[in-house]
């Protein structure tokens, strides 16, 4: 069951990578590379840091195949994806919520401190998008677009990490609940246009 | 003998990095950094992923020295390199063919699945060029230039990986043959200007 | 005592990252990300390469907290930092000197060759700044600004590595002396505007 959710997260992140490639008029190679890196990049960074090598992306066949599938869909039907963008954004929020929680819990499994587990949860959730933007030749959108994107991941990873300190709380309810919290915060931030500030005096 | 071929691949990739630095009017530090990262980046990424640390670039002296030599040559004689660009492109194709095969086989040695060995072969072959372009402030050319560059590497890595499944086929003939195939495809793609498509409807 | 110096280096590098974020009009998330990556990126790269996982940035709480502190200071008082830029540049030179030496010595501790220890010393010193610039959407300044920045790190790492070959020279005097040398070279290069050349004939 978490396996299925992981693959859903990978699929939506891959779609966002492939759509970025269409927007930049990249070719099919660029689509596949951006789809793979967006979907798998955050988890690969996390696994390299905690020493879980080869990273799961290099041991699981479905982790590699799902972004190929997403690329094929976007290749043929990308105008439809642009039309259903609100739905894609919802799935992206689901991926964000899921990845920040699974990333933090995996880091705890590898005996990192709670602070660093939270950090790795956020890296897992936003790392792929950062790599996608860097490879597309633009500043990572998470650094400037002022939408709440990293912060919901921070909250989800923090709550999951805090609850995980109690062994009797380990389980799918805590992880699903934390992921839902991050998902809800992200959706609320999109709905009511919550924004992060710039440095004092830099202005809007 | 494979050692010599590896160094030839490193040399030509380093030349392409140093020439990119000249084109961007970088200084000598930029030339050396781009030469090293272009030549060694793909292999470093592969070794980090499979857990072969320190990566071979950090244990072999000649891996580091050859890009320095390439930088020195480009520093003094870069106009000549621009003139012999067709030859440089041939060597680059040789490096591509060689790296995709050695990368895939090394991944198999580290017990990765055939699918992931192919993936790592391609990463070894194109990773350095991607890092070079990202550090030069441009979208990696492999993502958009529509020339067949990643695909010959994919074919070479796939053939090498498939044949390597039979232990009795392990050896220099299979690896050299696969590298030659990737090299030939790349050269043919340059000769007849084969191109990869963009997403349906994005047009030329 | 070296611990304190490390944190000073991290602090000043984090300040440079946060100031880059202000300059690019990034939001508070961008400030924190650039501060962390500038301060910790070089050391993380070094630790991944030598196999010291998790990297020290993911085991030490203060390594993560100090850049947060630097971000908060820049968030509220960044105009003051711009005014005291010469002092910030001095501290940055101190961080450069310190990181190139500690990076090289840590690599020697992990049994890398002297050549590769020097290389990793330079990567530790300049890696964070390179990642900062790549994430800010610009060519890493170390590649083109022609000021002596990487070269003092190269000298400091080389001297530290050479002296460290004699076990009886291991100690704080040699490391502090090598760091001071790199620091002094960097300050002198700023003071007298020493510059690195471009490739022959590319001109000024």
SSE inventory with pairings:
Three copies of one chain form a homotrimer.
Chain A (H helix, E strand, L loop, with lengths): L1 H22 L4 H23 L10 H23 L1 H25 L4 H22 L14 H15 L7 H20 L13
Helix pairs in contact in A: 1-2, 1-3, 1-4, 2-3, 2-5, 4-5, 4-6, 4-7, 5-6, 6-7
Describe this protein's structure.
- Chains A, B, C: InterPro entries: Gly_transporter.
- Chains A, B, C: Belongs to the UPF0126 family.
- Chains A, B, C: Keywords: Cell membrane, Membrane, Transmembrane, Transmembrane helix.
- Chains A, B, C: Its main location: membrane.
- Three copies of one chain form a homotrimer.
- By secondary structure, chain A is mostly helical.
- Chain A has one domain (2-191).
- In chain A, 74% of the residues lie in helices and 0% in strands.
- Chain A has seven helices and no strands.
- In chain A, helix 1 crosses helix 3, helix 4 (85-109) crosses helix 5 and helix 5 (114-135) packs antiparallel against helix 6 (150-164).
- The termini of chain A are far apart.
- The model of chain A has no long low-confidence stretch (mean pLDDT 92).
- Chains in contact: A-B, A-C, B-C.
- The interface between A and B is medium-sized, with 30 and 33 residues.
List keywords for this structure.
homotrimer, 0% strand, mainly alpha, 204 residues
Q: How many structural domains in the coordinates of chain A?
A: 1
Instruction: State the secondary-structure class of chain A.
Output: mainly alpha
Q: Alpha-carbon distance between the termini of chain A? A: 44 Å
Please tell me how large the radius of gyration of chain A is: 17 Å
Number of helices of chain A: 7
Largest sheet of chain A: none
Please identify the oligomeric state.
homotrimer
Give the overall average pLDDT of chain A. Answer: 92
Query: Which two chains share the most extensive interface?
Result: A-B, 30 and 33 residues
From the spread of the alpha carbons, the general shape of chain A counts as globular
Catalogue the unreliable spans of chain A: none
Q: SSE order of chain A, as H and E?
A: HHHHHHH
Number of strands of chain A: 0
């Amino acid at each position: 069951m978490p396996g299925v959710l992981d693959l859903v997260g990978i699929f939506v992140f891959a779609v966002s990578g492939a759509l970025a490639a269409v927007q930049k008029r990249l070719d099919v190679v660029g689509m596949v590379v951006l789809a793979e890196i967006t979907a798998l990049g955050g988890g690969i960074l996390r696994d390299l840091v905690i020493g879980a090598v080869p990273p799961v992306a290099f041991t699981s066949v479905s982790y590699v195949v799902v972004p190929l599938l997403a690329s094929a869909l976007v290749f043929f039907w990308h105008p439809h994806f642009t039309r259903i963008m609100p739905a894609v954004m919802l799935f992206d929020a689901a991926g964000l919520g899921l990845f920040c929680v699974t990333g933090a819990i995996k880091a705890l499994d590898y005996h990192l401190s709670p602070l660093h587990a939270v950090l790795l949860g956020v890296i897992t959730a936003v790392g792929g998008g950062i790599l996608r933007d860097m490879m597309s030749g633009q500043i990572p959108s998470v650094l400037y677009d002022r939408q709440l994107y990293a912060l919901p991941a921070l909250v989800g990873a923090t709550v999951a990490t805090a609850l995980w300190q109690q062994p009797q709380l380990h389980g799918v309810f805590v992880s699903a609940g934390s992921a839902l919290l991050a998902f809800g915060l992200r959706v609320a931030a999109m709905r009511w246009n919550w924004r992060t500030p710039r440095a004092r005096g830099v202005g809007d």
